[in-house]
Amino acid sequence: MDGTLTERGRQTRQRIIEATGQQILAGGIGGTTLDGVRAATLTSKSQLFHYFPGGKNELVREVAAWEGDQLLAAQLPWLDDLSTWESWHAWRDALVDYYLGLGRWACPIGSMAWEAAATDPELAAGIAEAMRAWRGKLADGVRRLQAAGGVAPTSDPERLAAAILAAVQGGLMLSQPERSSWPLEAALDSLLDVLRAGAPATNVP
Amino acid sequence: MDGTLTERGRQTRQRIIEATGQQILAGGIGGTTLDGVRAATLTSKSQLFHYFPGGKNELVREVAAWEGDQLLAAQLPWLDDLSTWESWHAWRDALVDYYLGLGRWACPIGSMAWEAAATDPELAAGIAEAMRAWRGKLADGVRRLQAAGGVAPTSDPERLAAAILAAVQGGLMLSQPERSSWPLEAALDSLLDVLRAGAPATNVP
């Protein structure tokens, strides 16, 4: 749809997406209503359906897609590299900084996953696909580090990538009530230790 | 309240709690209604308020408490030990079996955490407290293994415990859309590798 919008239309559409994202963070998907979004963005019902003919479900999916893009962008250029220890550590720092910048220890995508699984199969499938794509990029990174001799050749990149992404998501879940990054950092650093422990050169005590 | 209930009253109350737990798994907290619980349990409105005077919020908190108790019980007796590798591996297997037995790759407590954070501060505080208690038991286990010489004395038990619990919660989140335990097992096993890597005796290549 974006291709047919004027610049002003594009801005309005984006304003609606961002305001909806704020409402989801504050009240969950269940606590988000089109009336609330209209009030926050001073838009009319017909404007809302002009930009999002599928109503709330379409709008929530567009929020998830936009937040997924933001999240990936925050991890660049490192996420596309990860062939060195420096790259892994820069990736880890960029990710922690991204969540810190959100002002809330929550993954905009991951925090929707359970509610989506229970209420909107299409949204749940989209979130699962975003997680698989993210996991795939981490697995590619493990393979690059492995090719460079930084990880044991016997390590399974897919399993390590799943463990790293689990550390991100589970770490955020534990960080949220503590209002601190320490659980996220502890989880991420433990996984970077796993990678490092597999490196032949670091197996020397 | 339990103390003043007849055996039959206790059974009815428990039946209501379990039916509510099923509704939360199927539709989230937001998708759970007292009318739905009444229909599923064939109870009257006055019965429901007799057992749960605080209405839906009280009922959801009782579900979380009951599910938290079930989850801890499933990890016994290992969770109270964890002083040996055998104990850690038996704990890991019992936990995976527990989630397998639920028929759904989700933590009954963890899957409520994000929605609770957005909608019910008292419930969110209760879930956070349950997570801290669980994390504390894992940290005690790391200390016992450390005292037995199984973990490097320089390792921080609180950080390792947070990383292990993050692996459980994040692993479940990735397992759910895959309908498979492999991401959970990959995340858990990576963390057990971290513990093991810290053991002086296993640092020998």
TrEMBL record, chains A, B:
> Which terms are listed as keywords in the entry?
Transcription, Transcription regulation
Quick check: keyword Amino-acid biosynthesis in the entry?
no
Classification via Gene3D superfamilies: Tetracycline Repressor, domain 2 (1.10.357.10)
The answer on whether this UniProt entry bears the keyword Transcription reads: yes
**Which residue range or ranges hold the Transcriptional regulator LmrA/YxaF-like C-terminal domain?**
106-187
The highest taxon in the source lineage is: Bacteria
Name of the protein this chain belongs to = AcrR family transcriptional regulator
* Natural source organism: Microlunatus antarcticus
